[in-house]
Amino acid sequence: MTATMQSPIRHDWSLEEVEALFAMSFNDLLFQAQVMHRQNFDPNEVQVSTLLSIKTGACPEDCKYCPQSGHYNTGLEKEKLLEVEKVVNEAKAAKEKGASRFCMGAAWRNPRAKDMPYVLEMVKQVKSLGMETCMTLGMLTADQALELAGAGLDYYNHNLDTSENYYGEIITTRTYSDRLETLQNVRDAGMKVCCGGIMGMGESARDRAALLAQLANLPSHPESVPINMLVKVQGTPLEVQEDIDPFDFIRTIAVARILMPKSHVRLSAGREDMNEQMQAMCFLAGANSIFYGEKLLTTPNPEADKDMMLFKKLGIRPEQREQAHSEDQQEAYLHDAIQAHDQQQRMENMFYDATKTA
Ligand code: SAM
Ligand code: DTB
Ligand code: SF4
After folding, report:
1. Alpha helices in 53-197 (DSSP H)
2. Is the pLDDT of residue 200 over 50?
3. Domain boundaries, the chain
4. Average pLDDT of the chain, as a whole number
5. Which of 52, 109, 298, 321 is the most exposed place for a label (fewest CB within 10 A)?
């Protein structure tokens, strides 16, 4: 495929156009998504991130899907903000198991001023391990976003979760525009955006199309687009929600790939309830990132060994960290430049220059 044949990056998708993609025959849609995927990525590489809950439960928000909301009784044990050292040890363990990005999540509406020094220190220390860093802490002011970016945070995760229309059915304690404002603050601070949603919350096909259109029509596409399948947790209002049809979930991944060709599309929460064949179809549809490690924030995720076995069966490799390459390259260039400079100095010292006066 030559570069000239690549489809342009668009930010002007109409809802009807996105619905038309969803309405394609399954095979045609998957083929189109796979072609798009191959134009932009190595189809056999998947990025792996590990998640850690740095502050668990007792959240003041009322997100109907969430086991951590203080509004519902899910039997979850609450935990205060973890110590920096504990977080860094978890990050080291994740790195040893092959994760290239470490994502830290807190059950907050937003971080308080007194929390900021601790989270900034976490970012600095995890980053110094050579990992990419990601945080999801709720809403951010412009100043907080700048502080996190200053500490070296690479990604900020803040999901739109569903369409603007359906949003009020799921969350009442903050608005869709609050979410868009945080996303803008993250962008303005120069961080990469991780933003997606949850499928299977009782939303319509039109809601799914509207969420993807909203993401694709942001001024810049999120670099990372998590597509979560609802994890039904006992005690939450969505505990009894009917399952999403697996083909509708795979279609959502494929449409996300087509709308946001250069973004990593993450096959996010819900993999515990998917068999290997379904996950393989999600990769075929263009998913190229997963959460890796036996726990998401509070709910189970497939064991790391099981994921490595699946990768082996499918001939998939974990994606290496981009920045690490460029940092190594930079170091190599610097080393070469210093050597060349030294060599020149030595040469200059060997010859007497008659044109120079003492
Ligand atoms: N409190 C912060 C916030 O809401 O922005 C950060 C943590 S919150 C748990 C991060 C995301 O996890 C949510 O936006 C939602 O998309 C996802 N999530 C939470 N519970 C989930 C569930 N039961 N199933 C699938 N995704 C879930
Ligand atoms: C995202 O989109 N999914 C992750 C991450 N961003 C923070 C969280 C999934 C949470 C699933 C429920 C739990 O484990 O508590
Ligand atoms: Fe709180 Fe985030 Fe859960 Fe909503 S999704 S209840 S904000 S932890």
Report:
1. 84-96, 116-127, 142-151, 164-170, 176-188
2. yes
3. 10-350
4. 89
5. 109
